[in-house]
Amino acid sequence: MRDDPYPPINARLLLEAYASGVFPMADGAEANEIFWVDPKARGIIPLDGLTVSRSLRKRLRRDDYQVTINRRFVDIVQACADREETWINAEIQSLYHDLYRGGYAHSIEVWMGDELAGGLYGVALGGAFFGESMFSRRTDASKIALVWLVARLRAGGFTLLDTQFVTEHLERLGAIEIPRGVYHRRLEQALIQPADFWRLPVKTDTQLVLQLSTQMS
To answer: Counting Cβ atoms within 10 Å, is residue 24 exposed (0-12), middle (13-18) or buried (19+)?
Structure first.
């Protein structure tokens, strides 16, 4: 008989949690327990509100990087977890690997030469995309990944990009906070919205990506 009153977390339960507006976290990489979070103030990036500075726009137009989708999902999650303070423990990594194998989780990789310079990963469910984490090993690499993500979401008919919380980094890119109740109403509508993460070709012209995703600042 199990002493634990809660069922073990698996990919199906994790998807149900997202659909209910909550997400998992751990206290650190070595933590053994996962807890559920439903913040009073939720971070989102409005898909018509991504702010890209002139310097980043100029950086995006250079031809010294390449963007791929789902090529190195496991490495992206590991890189996001590989920092002094992290909420991603081994169980969380395993759960997202399961979602990836099921077609729900996706990664965007930014390459500079042969180096995986940065990227992000998250979960797509209906017309909602839940951005989980991002990292950079080279200047602006995670920002490039985010621009490509927003272009893909807009092209695919998504209506909600959840960032969970708002950091100074995300705020400069257009992230805002909305009350929990407002978030849950937007989530409810997004989940019934038909969307296709793959509608935009993987190899897309940079100018089209900029048109789809950005506003000047």
So the answer is: buried
